[in-house]
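Q: How would the structure tokens look for this protein?
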Amino acid sequence: MGSVHILVAEDDEHVADALTEALRRHGHTVLRTADGGRAVDAAKEAEFVLLDLGLVGLDGYEVCRRIRAASMVPIIALTARSEEIDRVMVLQAGADDYVVKPYGFRELLARIEAVMRRATRSATPTAVPERDGSVLETGTLSIDVRARKALLAGRPLSLTAKEFDLLALLAAERGAVLTREQIIERVWDENWFGSTRTLDVHVGSLRTKLGDRRWIETVRGVGFRLTNPCC
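A: Here is the predicted structure in token form.
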């Protein structure tokens, strides 16, 4: 990973100082702020965002939602909240990963590199196999892999990059059960550090956007498969 322009949104001055110094030692350029509103604006110029959830003004969840609504810049949330619901909420807000404080800098750096790899793969997807051409169809669901567009009954679905990758993978293997490990490896990264709970969050979000949870069937103890709820 070469030099990356990283936004550090952190309200603890001592933590921000140490993190900024360490990132700069590794060749990255750093912009820092403790203000949520400024973080939203600064993210427009950043290549990566490290986002503390306890900021001045807007809280980290709202900052994450606003950044994600305008940009697909990679985001890692830095949180002292270890409860599962907090981790789920930040992933639903649009973060790509999270690190629970206190954390080791080497782990954080590894997670940054992993998220950057996944972001690159999403920009030029190779993990989703194509059948006859680049359009995958299941009932009223149509997915154009090359254009990265999905339609349901002719209406476009508003999907995040990871939601699209997940749906396209399941559609390409329609009817087959994919294990959780296979999905994580192909949609996220073979060196994924986080919990597979991330997958459950994205499946839940996709079911909501598809309007019928039967589109994605859970096979207990194994994984998931795409079905056609109309048939």
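The two ends are 47 Å apart (CA to CA).

The CA atoms of residues 5 and 47 lie 5 Å apart.

Upvote if useful.
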